[in-house]
Amino acid sequence: MGLLQDLRFAGRMLIKSPWVSAMSVSALGLGIGVTATMFSIVYAALMRGLPFEDGDRIMAVSRTNPEQGTNRGATPIADFADWSEQQTSFEELAGYYQGTVNVRWTDRPERFDGAFVSNSTFRVVGVRPLLGRDFRPGDDALGAPLRVVISHRLWQDRLAADPGALGQALKVNGETAEIIGVMPEGFMFPSTQDIWVPLRLDPLAQPRGEGQYLTVVGKLRPDLSVEQAGAEFAGIAQRLATAYPETNEGFGVIIEPFTDLSIGTEAKGLLLAMLAAVSMVLLIACANVANLLLARAAVRTKEVGIRTAMGANRWRVVSQMVAEAFAIALVGGALGAGLAWFGVGLFDRAIAGTDPPFFLVFKVDGPILAFVLGISVLAAIVAGGIPALKASGMDVSSILKDESRGSSSFRIGRLSKILV
Question: Which of 122, 131, 140, 233 would give a disulfide with 198, using CB separation of 3.0 to 4.6 Å?
Fold first, then answer.
């Protein structure tokens, strides 16, 4: 009941000072909007993860060699075969490499982004085709008939979403292939792929350390941590270094979320630095609003003194003044959410031509709105708490005796200079 009374009182006070209220709402709205826009970008890149069930368990497994300056290197196919045979931390490992695939439907060839994958790839990510099937053991064996899986986009754009596309023959990199599956809409793993081709490679066909290098991914077992998996792979790497010193000595293994590998360490650091920078913009906005409310509190020191003298405790005075800041912050938060929606849409359209990975979805949804609400509350506490505590902490007798309000105004003015 007391909170509702404080909010009603706050509403009346905001209407009495429309210019101060408008400036305060604008400052907080801009600060919240810029911060929420940047947070939504960071959230999409670093927190949202893969849009699959248990997507947070899909890890990238990469080779490292500090002496050679290799931080996240691709893995020779022979090492991939040994890892798959010896490891127990992952439900299964998959390997792939990306490349351009030439497809001839009728009389003219077209180029598409493709991935050459092991038969376990779709099982690892846990996504089944919308139509048909994915690859089975043996589809990636050397000399096996060529079968391909295509994206939903390719199925719609080139085959008019014809269910009879399954079993259709086409030329893939000059070889006759059969379409065996169509993936669900939006699936383009690992990045922007439209067609998937089995590797059809023999790990023992070439000397160790030569041949195709692969990006390796796996679904971590639910009862194990990344650290435990890393310890197991460190042991495997040591055994391979002992057995094959010419090709494996000095190489270790790093395990990290697949999205971290896709985004990259530099981009991750840059995004976090930009989020910290725009957070300072919000802090400046809070300081400006605190200054405006502090100036208004200076005018109301007599009112505060009289209410305190009549028995209002300090908490009651503070809560009413903070309620004003909450009202301002909530309106500013709504304005900030609108600005974030506009800014995120603008950013999404700006990078559309750069072919970002399929899992980068920039939108203002539940987590972003929760963030806006959280920073709005925080902004209200920061912007309203300072003037409320200052005004409520003044000596009542001094306020009531000071008809000119000169001494109290001076003390508030000094705090105002500190905020500036």
Answer: 140
